[in-house]
Design brief:
- It is a single chain.
- By secondary structure, the protein is α+β, with helices and mostly antiparallel strands.
- Helices cover about 25% and strands about 25% of the residues.
- It has 11 helices and 23 strands.
- The strands form 8 sheets. The protein has an 8-stranded mixed β-sheet with strand order 6-5-9-3-2-12-15-14, with no helix packed on it.
- α2 packs across α4.
């Protein structure tokens, strides 16, 4: 994700050389529907679980691995009304389960079935706890069907999940908000394939991740179906419903490109959308083949203040493309940032949220590299500025690979400069240390070896050592986990801790 500030010049704030760190979503705990509570089995009380993520300990759930989600939403035409929804999950158990915990926190549950049989359920924290008629053995394949509502009105004190636009809805689920939309195993370590069906009144267009699999029209409405060919983390799911135009073209190697834009902004959007094929070719020259079945821009008619790398369909506020103050190089660098995430964060997802720097550091790196090659914005200057600010960023947010645990009600506080510019600074230091050819081999090997999977910081250190032909653990450990920024190879004159305070301050909420 990338924040897109509104300035009168179209340039990033002084001293940053880029867009500011995003204003992330605030978070507070929410219970699942109180109507669920009467259906709990008369045994021990239901409790929330988690997969033990250091930053989000209650996200995800143990005991099963999701193979696929089938999501069906029915939209009334008014984005203040809950959508009717059915979520079907196909999973394999990895342990014997007497109960199944799903993350779900902002909708009313009507019924639950496990393998076609009614199951008891209850809310516990931000979990939906399901008790099947009999325990599920380890290694079993199971199908869980939840009939529920999905509320597009943000709960008090919390954003994320559905985002209301001028003409409908979009999703912004990063990092911990997919379970505000649908029941799921809401952690990037459990990726799955998705089928998404959306029914909306005539006059609306629904678009989702992946490729279109048909549309059926009847009784004044249409049902749109989309399927992903590659596994996807829940935080990357995307559904757009609105009075939209869909622009279609072909990218490199025949790649289907589709851009979703508010109909009233179609003329303004066309020139920007036409640049995407060139951006993909540029990224492929660095990393190899684009990793998914389609790509496109989703321009939401809303003042988002951020862009988000939802898989195959990156989300932007339309204002980024319609506001004349923004310079072309700046807009394109943001477009490239989100495109780079399709490799870093989407195809190769973080094993834990502490590995976030692998997403944001790489996306910032290619954003900056593009600005250097295409707009003459020197990477060295940007990295020198980042080096000067790095100690401040580490003090505020923690080292790049060990972000500070977010404060209560501020779960998305992990998205700070320490993982954006600070993560890119780690990559610059590594390139300085091992040389350009080895670094470029490492980047290609990383996205090839871990394609469609998850990977950790430790995996990156091991691969870097393998490619360089020497142990880089000590070098990278200091850069990734140190309280202070190490000396920059090749630049003994660079000084940390001399940044302009205005350049390192956290952005004010928009």
């Amino acid at each position: 994700m990338l924040h897109t500030p509104h300035t009168s010049t179209g340039r990033p704030p002084a001293g940053r050389g880029r867009a500011m760190v995003p204003r992330r979503y605030r978070a507070t705990a929410l219970l699942a529907s109180a109507a669920s509570l009467g259906l709990v089995a008369a045994s021990a009380p239901a409790v929330p679980l988690g997969v033990g993520d250091r930053l989000f300990p209650h996200l995800g759930n143990p005991g099963y691995d999701v193979a696929s989600y089938d999501l069906a939403f029915t939209y009334s035409g008014r984005n203040s009304e809950p959508l009717r929804a059915v979520t079907t999950i196909d999973a394999r158990t990895t342990a014997r389960l007497e109960r199944i915990n799903l993350d779900f926190a902002h909708g009313k549950v009507g019924s639950v079935e496990v393998d076609g049989r009614p199951a008891a359920f209850a809310g516990a924290g931000e979990d939906l706890v399901i008790t099947p008629g009999k325990p599920l053995p380890q290694g079993a394949r199971t199908r869980i069907t939840v009939r529920h509502t999905s509320d597009p009105v943000s709960p008090k004190g919390r954003d994320g999940g559905w985002v209301r636009t001028a003409d409908g809805l979009v999703m912004a689920n990063q990092a911990d908000a997919a379970h505000l939309v649908f029941p799921c195993n809401d952690h990037p370590s459990d990726k799955a394939r998705f089928t998404i069906r959306v029914t909306a009144p005539d006059g609306h267009t629904a678009v989702a991740n992946g490729l279109a699999a048909g549309v059926e029209r009847a009784n004044g409405s249409a049902t749109w179906t989309y399927r992903t060919r590659h596994p996807m983390a829940t935080e990357l799911a995307q559904v757009s419903i609105g009075r939209s135009a869909v622009l279609r073209r072909t990218g490199p190697h025949g790649l289907p490109l589709r851009d979703v834009v508010p109909a009233r902004y179609r003329a303004a959007a066309e020139p920007w959308a036409a640049r995407t094929a060139g951006h993909i070719s540029w990224m492929e020259s660095k990393l190899g083949r684009y990793p998914f079945e389609s790509y496109g821009l989703l321009m939401a008619d809303a003042p988002l203040g951020f862009a988000l790398e939802t898989q195959t369909l990156s989300l932007f506020g339309a204002g980024l493309f319609t506001e004349p103050a923004y310079e072309q190089w700046y807009v394109e660098s943001i477009m490239v940032h989100e495109l780079a995430h399709q490799w870093f964060g989407d195809s190769v997802s973080p094993r834990t949220w502490s590995d976030l720097w692998l997403n944001e550091g790489h996306a910032t790196w290619y954003e900056a590299l593009y600005a250097e090659e295409k707009a003459g914005r020197p990477l060295r200057t940007r990295m020198k500025d980042a080096y000067a600010a790095s100690d401040t960023w580490r003090a505020v947010g923690g080292p790049p690979a060990a972000p500070k645990v977010p404060a209560p009600g501020q779960k998305t506080g992990i998205f700070r400069q320490n993982v954006y510019e600070g993560g890119a600074l780690v990559l610059y230091a590594l390139r300085q240390e091992i040389g350009h050819p080895a670094f470029e081999r490492l980047e290609r090997a990383w996205v090839t070896r871990h394609r469609d999977g998850t990977a950790s910081t430790a995996d990156f250190v091991r691969l870097a050592s393998e490619i360089a032909g020497r142990d880089l653990d000590g070098f990278l450990r200091a850069w990734l986990y140190g309280e202070k920024t190490p000396p920059m190879p090749g630049h003994p004159d660079w000084k940390a801790g001399t940044a302009d305070p205005a350049a390192t301050a956290e952005p004010a909420p928009e």
